[in-house]
Amino acid sequence: MKAKGGSAFHVITITITVLLAVLGLLLSLSLGSFQLQYANILEIITNPYQNSIEASVIWQLRLPRALMAIVIGGGMALSGYQMQIVFQNPLADPYLLGISAGASLGANAAILGFLPVAFLGLYGISVWAAMGAFLVTILSLALSTQAYKESKTLKLILAGIALSSLAGALNSLLIFYSTEENKLRSIIFWLLGSMDRSTWQLLLLVFIIALVSFVFTLLLSPSIKILTQGEQRANSLGLNTNQLKYTLLVLSSLFSAVAVSAVGIIGFVGLVVPHLSRAFFPVGSKAGTFATFLIGAVLLMWCDIISRWLYAPAGLPIGVISAFLGLPFFLYLLQNKTYRF
User: Domain 7-335 falls in which CATH fold?
Assistant: First the structure.
């Protein structure tokens, strides 16, 4: 999809997105079992040492949740952006290498009691989910090492699909043999994604990984721009395309694994947002990288707001909302005969 407009158009686009982010943040902080006026929210934010129920709700529950949605949304969008560049495929997403299936397997095994979680504290399930995601990713890369050296990504995709199918089968087996209804509900809710487990400690970890991914992608922007001209041309210009692809794969996989372990599986953000970004900004530009992160952050935050508004105060699984919003975009791509990656 070819980028539109010049620098003034880009500034307007970024400004509108930032305004939507600010509005969404205020609205997210006001929603819940009891609503708060915007004036009260601003007072609590500017005076964090208040000793009140409202202040506790904002600082311990709503603000970590809103910021987690921002960081996860931006990071997942950037991960999708990286994967689509590596595979030069508009259908590539952060879960292509089986990360979501591996994380699900680790989390489900922990929830059903097949893996110990007590010694890991409150984040036991998240730790096992991350380990499952990392294991599947490493296996995918290992199985396709020879193909990767030859600059062939097909076997890497096939390895990811095969391991994802295997993990999915094991997940189904675990669920089939489980007889505890409350644990099954926890599994289903986790598989569909939720910001309910957001804490400041978990947010800090996710933010650090997202920041690393964002900074490296910015630094690699000139090389990414060359790669988008074609791998053969990039090699002729002296670019080490294998090294660049491997770096982007590691960045994408690392954040995706941490994100899934923190909030569960949230689809379509990493798939749809890079297309939206390319509609306004050139691929490989620093502005495009920033816009991808920002649009993803705003989109997921508004998905969380919609989920809490439709089913207050607990909220629907956020993955359901993101899927509903992503479907019309895909229908547009199917109908748009002039679309090119």
Answer: ABC transporter involved in vitamin B12 uptake, BtuC (1.10.3470)
